[in-house]
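During the no-cost extension, the postdoctoral fellow (Dr. R.K.) reprocessed legacy sequence entries with the updated structure-token encoder. One reprocessed record is reproduced below for audit purposes.
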Amino acid sequence: MINDHVAGLRKRIDIIDAKLIDLLNERLAIAIDINREKEKTAAAVYSPSREASIVNRLMRINKGPLQNDFIKYIFKEIFSASRASVTPPRIAFLGPEGTWAHQAALLEFGNSSPLLPAKNISEIFNEVEYSNCDFGVVPIENSMEGTVPQTLDRFIDSPLLIAREIFVPISYVLAARENCNVKNITKVYSHPQAIAQCRRWIRERLPNAITVDTDSTSQAAKIVQHPGPSVAIVSELAARLYGLKVLARRLEENPNNVTRFVVIGKLMPDRTESDKTSIIFAVKHRAGALYAALKPFSDYRVNLTKIESRPLKKKAWEYLFFVDIDGHIGDEKIKKAVSAARQHTVFFKFLGSYPKTTQEQP
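Re-encoded structure tokens follow.
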């Protein structure tokens, strides 16, 4: 039996929920007017800088008990609903459905934008460059494996810019058909990287099972939909999309495995209160060349948050340097530091300035 106190609290919640619906509809009506005005001038409906500013402001004034991560999640869906009121942007991601890239696209664009799976990273760049899609979501680095070579290679010749970054924690589940008997499992399907990251769990919990490599964790999910004593190591999203039962969670050995994805497109976001700038450059193969290129950042007191080298494919023993900078290219000291550094390079590419994202995701 529900006592009178609980019943009274529920009535208060009902009243608040009704107010929330009215306020959400009022907000959506205003957003629709804004988006229609944007369409008249061919301005992009998706505005990562504006969305980041809204979320950051709300997190600053949040007094709880609602956690800031849930504010991010809730407002991503509100933004998504607003974009859906006009023509939502088309998003290309590294498919198939259920991949970490798919999850990243959902985290940034919500459920209202058309999400179109691509076969590889190069195809995503092509889809956006040829305007078949408005934006793409590509992996750029992993906390364990480093930068993603295919993405950096495409950035070298592409006119596209980074508009946003998305951090996705990588955590695997063991999934199977609803009536699968765990005691009879003989095969574990997954992508080789996922199997490697869950090797200890497999060895300890399924010592008699053999592992079978697949092209993706999503393909593994598809395979175990069919009858047989087999399971798949996949994301929770893939398990849900392919109608599988989750048998165990957090199989990975390293709980700090995070992949950073970026949204690529033809726009550069406006400056916010917290931004990041990314560049790629190469220097002459001689002593002191890298120091000369990096010194201007020290001179102008600009913080570099990341620097990683990658071999140049066209010439042996020469390298590209991928650098993240704390700040926006519109900031005077960033502009001056980048301009001075560029004078000491033989190749230079500005990849974009975009809102910085904290690594916590809902």
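The two ends are 34 Å apart (CA to CA). The first strand starts at residue 91 and ends at 94. The remaining legacy entries will be reprocessed before the final report is submitted.
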